[in-house]
UniProtKB/TrEMBL annotation:
Residues 22-98 are annotated as: Disordered. GO terms for molecular function: cysteine-type peptidase activity. InterPro entries: Papain-like_cys_pep_sf, Pept_cys_AS, Pept_his_AS, Peptidase_C1A, Peptidase_C1A_C, Peptidase_C1A_papain-like, Prot_inhib_I29. This is Peptidase C1A papain C-terminal domain-containing protein. Belongs to the peptidase C1 family. It comes from the Eukaryota. It comes from Chironomus riparius. Residues 58-118 form the Cathepsin propeptide inhibitor domain. Keywords: Disulfide bond, Hydrolase, Protease, Signal, Thiol protease, Zymogen. Residues 22-43, 70-88 have a biased composition (Basic and acidic residues). Residues 44-55 have a biased composition (Acidic residues). One of its GO terms (biological process) is proteolysis. Residues 1-18 form the signal peptide. Residues 146-368 form the Peptidase C1A papain C-terminal domain.
Amino acid sequence: MKLILIFALCLLVIAVVADNKGKSKNRDRDDSSKSNSNSHHDSDSDERDDDDDDEVKWNNYKQKNKKGYKNPEEEVKRRNEFKKNDNKFKKHNERQKTGQTHFKMGHNRFSDRNDTDLERKFLHKFTRRDFSKVQNKVPASSYPIGPDSVSYRTSTLPVLNQEACGCCWAFSAVAQVEAQLKRKDPAYSTRISPQYLLDCQPNSGCETGGAVSDAFSFLKTNGLVDAAIYPYTAIEETCKANIPKLTQQVTSFTHYDLNGDENLLKNVLAAVGPVVVSMYVVPGTFMHYESGIYWDETCPNQCQKVNHAMLLVGYGTDTETYSEPLDYWLFKNSFGPSFGEAGYIRIIRNSPTYKNNCNIACMIDFSS
Ligand SMILES: *[C@@H]1O[C@H](CO)[C@@H](O)[C@H](O)[C@H]1NC(C)=O
């Protein structure tokens, strides 16, 4: 069956400013600070002047996230968005306290932009994608029922930051290969170059995005490159030829359309190890995720919509945080270690209300 899916692209991080270009790379690159420590300025003391409080908060935010703006007007706009987001996070986190939602939102480098801006700048146009050339049917009964919980987190290498480039497709693909190599050999530590994919794989890029199955196909044909030899620059550049290849190889890869079947995803993950999931996220909540189990009632359950890809590394049930046990999927993201739970995000699993929330059980790709 010829299967045409709307395929989509990734989140794009925008470099800070034009007149700060030399420094902006380092600024965006530095994403190592956890941004939830403004709470000591949240004092509701009557004595405190609100404007002073806002000023302190804003300066802390800029410093913590290494922000620079091209001019004072731009800063006023961004500060305004920051303030709105700050209020939004407070309201949301109140709802979290009363169990109406199960994750917290907090400040990170995305919180000085409005939702429209996030969507426009960090999510991309869809391109049509034909998966008929790759396997797309899960072989019937080929996967036994997975255990109640699985975590491959110890088989992953440290979280990376895709920065100002929409190439989650490349980061998630190399993260999957790394994790599979580390599963086979716990001493494995070589980082595989996403830049090699970005520069050399046709029909893909920072702004055009790319398909994860194409990335695996490319790596299978062309080999794996050490990221230390072909480092990440967050810009699509000319493909460098004659790069030495690692002895490790991608020998086969698989694409499955799971049509929203979370049980099937669980069984496949338990059997094959970490897999890349292409999904659809809502920028106004996803980008601001700090901790807990994420879901968004506006996330679609319709497999054609995709705008991000992450490495799925496990699933389980949180029996401690909420009034009731809550099932989750565990993902490794590529927004740096300061995003979410040390660079990871948990997304709701088996929700009776929001099945297949954010299309987490639609398209998966994995190498073996
Ligand atoms: C959101 O931010 C962008 C960029 O600063 C701006 O162009 C747009 O007007 C803003 N939208 C709203 C609804 O405030």
